[in-house]
Each structure stands twice: as structure tokens, then as C-alpha cells.
Design brief:
- With 370 residues, this protein is α/β, with parallel strands linked by helices.
- 40% of the residues lie in helices and 17% in strands.
- The chain folds into 3 domains: 107 residues, Rossmann fold; 107 residues, Rossmann fold, CATH 3.40.50; 91 residues, NadA-like (Rossmann fold, 3-Layer(aba) Sandwich).
- The strands form 4 sheets. The protein has a 4-stranded parallel sheet with strand order 4-3-5-6, with helices on both faces. A 4-stranded parallel sheet has the order 8-7-9-10.
- β1 and β2 form a beta hairpin.
- α1 runs parallel beside α14, α3 packs parallel to α4 and α4 packs across α15.
- The structure holds 1,3-dihydroxyacetonephosphate and iron/sulfur cluster.
Length: 370
């Protein structure tokens, strides 16, 4: 199995940033017959172990299908967390990236949480080291600490609130209405988008998603001109120039809902292209165009597919269930310290379901898994 290297931004406690390098494993290609056998084996193991598969929209389409056909879910970060917490299964297999498995374990310490590949990480998580982040918070004690879900358990342990892209706007608006100043980490694009929309006083950490950071406004504008009737759907981890061209800005679930509910026949989608699998299933008659990344200079980094989501393979599901590999552990007291900010978000969402559906430049009402 090969490896690919990626540059990402890493900030320190003083606010200074540097470029660091991370690696991801390239998944092995397998023949159709082998894939069918592996899927049947994974399905049988899930049943045998009374386990449920909780998958993100960006993972391999076959894993998404397996999750749905075995009673699991395919969802955004918020719904994955809620589904895992509320499901009766004693074992959760989380197909996504590390922070998603950790969030499930923090919420369900008595469940066994397994992941197909424990080294599937996220550039936002890597770019926000817990010790540097803690020192940054110490230097700004007058601010409420709001962190994106895409962070380690240790970073969440230092936060007042966790948010996902589904509810970040509503929660920051709520804090602003209370007169709070905010320290936001780690995604600078999402932070800037929320600051622009709410007018909140936000000090931003300098991190980015290496996938969404590659979407290009200029090329998107040209594509838009070729398809004037096509709404542009953008995940808010994208750069400001791309968000400015959006008809709908939202989480993965909200972007899917925009396609399903929309009346247009063609859509331009600016998020990881793993989402197209579920969009096509739910809106089969519609044409979906991928938003441009690096145009003619496209590289492996700018292929609009998360290299760490891609590390989730059917064989990984089999291995974790057969051999108990890939178990997520979050030691105390980090787990209980991190629980506070997640619970606060979940309580807010439960108490304010309508606030999450607030229209923002076509922000789509309704949440959850598709
Ligand atoms: P969602 O919560 O919108 O699914 O986003 C998670 C993520 O990692 C997007 O890159
Ligand atoms: Fe992280 Fe970006 Fe991958 Fe999402 S797509 S998991 S934000 S690197």
C-alpha cells in the first residue's frame, strides 16, 4: 500500500503558522468479485457482533451502502454523533476520520468504538496541537472557546462549546447575543464565514481543510457562466471567494437536502466528491457537477477527495470486527472534560431545532442524515 504526502497549516500558541507535512495511505484497488465477498463478510460480522456502522458521506460508496443496508447510518458529523449515542448497539464501527470516532467514544464510554483505520486523520485536527492551543486559550481568557468538531479530544477538553457545520452559525449567533467574545478554532475559512454572517467578535485560529481549501473562485465563476441555472452548493470550509458565489452554504446533510428539495435540474457542488454517491441515490434525475479545484494545475492534493476519508476500506471494517483492531480509547480526565462542550452543543440543538434551519443565503431548513 502506497502513501501520499500533504502540506497543511499548523499554528502555535503565539499565533504564528508554518507549513507541516502529513501522510495518508492510498487504498488498494480490489476486483469486483473480491469486493462482493468482502461486503458480505463485513455484513455478517456486523450482525454477529451486534455492531452498527456509522459512516460519513465522504467515505467509499460501498461502505455507505453497507451502513444503510445493515441498519446503520450515513450522515454528517452532527448526526453521526447523535446516531452513535442513541443506538442500542454495544459496538459502533465509525467509518470516517479520527475525531468522529473520538466524539462517539466520548459520548458513549461504555460502548466499544472501532474504526477501519485509526490513522485516518484530518488536516484541521493536525493543525491544532492541544498544547499550543491550550497556551493560546490561556492568552485569551476573556473569550469563550468554540471549537469545530474536527479537533482532537484534548482540544475539545479545553473548549466551552463544540460545533459542527450544521449548527455553528446558530451557536455563535447565540453567544454573540449574550455579549460573548469568541476564540474560534481551527478552520479559518469556516470561522471567517461565521464572523461575516453573525458580526461576532471572533479571534480565529489559522487552520484549513486541505480538500476545501483547493476550490477555486475564478474557475467556479466560469463554470457558473456555462450553467446559469445551476445553484452552487458550498461547504463553509471553502475559501471566502467560493462561499461568495454560493446559492446554498451548509453542512453535508444540508447540501444533500438542497439537491433533493431543489427544483433545478443541475447543481454545482463544492465539497468532497464522496458526497455525490448519496446525492445521486437520493436525486437520481439530477445532474451534479463538481466545483473546480486547481483547474489545469490540478494535483493529487486538489482532487476534491479527502485522503483520510479514503483510508476507510471494507477490509478495515472486517479487520476491526474480526480482530478487535482499531479501537478508539479516550483516557480520563480528557474524556469527561471534552464531554462538556459536546453535550452543550447537543442540548442547544435539541432545544433549538428551528434555529439550525435559519435561512442564510438559501441555508436549507432541516437537518440530519439522508
Ligand atoms: P459535515 O459535518 O458537514 O459532514 O463536515 C465534516 C467534514 O469533515 C467536512 O469536511
Ligand atoms: Fe478534515 Fe477536510 Fe478531510 Fe473533512 S474533508 S475530514 S475537514 S481534511
Amino acid at each position: 500500500m502506497g502513501q501520499v504526502l500533504f502540506d497543511y497549516t499548523r499554528q502555535d500558541a503565539t499565533g504564528a503558522s508554518r507549513t507541516a507535512q502529513a501522510w495518508a495511505r492510498v487504498p488498494l484497488a480490489t476486483a469486483p468479485a473480491e469486493r462482493r465477498a468482502a461486503r458480505a463478510r463485513a455484513s455478517a460480522l456486523l450482525k454477529q457482533h451486534n455492531a452498527v456502522l456509522v459512516a460519513h458521506y465522504y467515505v467509499d460508496g460501498e461502505l455507505q451502502d453497507l451502513a444503510l443496508e445493515t441498519g446503520g447510518c450515513v450522515a454528517d458529523s452532527l448526526e453521526m454523533a447523535r446516531f452513535g449515542r442513541d443506538h442500542a448497539a454495544r459496538t459502533l464501527v465509525v467509518a470516517g476520520v479520527r475525531f468522529m470516532g473520538e466524539t462517539s467514544k466520548i459520548l458513549s464510554p461504555d460502548k466499544r468504538v472501532l474504526m477501519p483505520d485509526l490513522e485516518a486523520t484530518c488536516s484541521l485536527d493536525l493543525g491544532c496541537p492541544p498544547d499550543e492551543f491550550a497556551r493560546f486559550c490561556d492568552a485569551h481568557r476573556d473569550r469563550k472557546v468554540v471549537v469545530y468538531a474536527n479537533t482532537s479530544a484534548a482540544v475539545k477538553a479545553r473548549a466551552d462549546w463544540m460545533v459542527t457545520s450544521s449548527c455553528a452559525l446558530a451557536i455563535v449567533q447565540h453567544l454573540k447575543d449574550q455579549g460573548q467574545k469568541i476564540l474560534w478554532a481551527p478552520d479559518r475559512h469556516l470561522g471567517r464565514y461565521i464572523r461575516d454572517e453573525t458580526g461576532a467578535d471572533m479571534l480565529l485560529w489559522n487552520g484549513e481543510c486541505i480538500v476545501h481549501d483547493e476550490f477555486k473562485a475564478l474557475e467556479l465563476e466560469l463554470l457558473k457562466r456555462e450553467h446559469p441555472g445551476a445553484p452552487v452548493l458550498v461547504h463553509p470550509e471553502s475559501p471566502a471567494g467560493v462561499v461568495a458565489l454560493a446559492d446554498v452554504v451548509g453542512s453535508t446533510s444540508q447540501l444533500i437536502k438542497a439537491v433533493v428539495d431543489g427544483t433545478a435540474s443541475t447543481y454545482i457542488v463544492a465539497t468532497d466528491n464522496g458526497i455525490l454517491h448519496r446525492m445521486r441515490q437520493l436525486a437520481p434525475g439530477k445532474t451534479l457537477l463538481e466545483a473546480p479545484t486547481a483547474g489545469r494545475s490540478a494535483t493529487c492534493k486538489s482532487c476534491a477527495h479527502c485522503p483520510w476519508m479514503a483510508m476507510n476500506a471494507m477490509q478495515g471494517v472486517i479487520d476491526c470486527l474480526e480482530h478487535g483492531r482499531g479501537e478508539i480509547r479516550v483516557p480520563e480526565p480528557t474524556r469527561s472534560q471534552a464531554l462538556g462542550c459536546i453535550d452543550r452543543m447537543l442540548a442547544f440543538v435539541a432545544a433549538n431545532p428551528a434555529s439550525i434551519a435559519q435561512p442564510r443565503r438559501g441555508f436549507v431548513p432541516g437537518l440530519g442524515s439522508a
